[in-house]
Each structure stands twice: as structure tokens, then as C-alpha cells.
Design brief:
Layout lengths: L2 H8 L5 H26 L3 H24 L3
Length: 71
């Protein structure tokens, strides 16, 4: 919960303040979603949170590439 939210937020943030804000929000979302998935599907909590962080990172990278396209 330290490196992946920061790396994910770096793909969409323009300033260090926005990067810190997005990293916090991504970490909170991933933790809540991972705990929810762990309870729902009877999975270990730690790997579920890490999986959610991986999904967030995997979704943000293509969004950045789409946003960079210039017509």
C-alpha cells in the first residue's frame, strides 16, 4: 500500500499535491474493495487488496495513453 498507489496516481496527476491526493484515494478504495472481496468470496485479505491495486494500475495506464492522444 505504499508504492502501487503512488505509481498509479502518477499516471494521472499533474502536480505533486494531486499525486498525493490520488494515491490516498486509490489506496483507500483498494483497501475497501479488497476487504469486501475477501469477505464476499472467503479469500485472504492481503492478496485481495494487492489484487485490487493491480487492477487499478492496469486500468489507469490505458486511460493515460488514451488521454495523451492528440487528434
Amino acid at each position: 500500500l505504499l508504492i502501487v498507489p503512488a505509481a498509479t496516481s502518477r499516471t494521472i496527476a499533474h502536480t505533486p499535491f494531486m499525486m498525493a491526493l490520488f494515491a490516498s484515494l486509490i489506496g483507500i478504495f483498494a483497501a475497501m474493495a479488497g476487504i469486501y472481496a475477501a469477505v464476499l468470496y472467503d479469500l485472504p485479505v492481503g492478496p485481495s487488496i494487492v489484487t485490487m491495486l493491480g487492477i487499478c494500475f492496469a486500468l489507469m495506464v490505458p486511460l493515460r495513453l488514451i488521454g495523451r492522444r492528440k487528434p
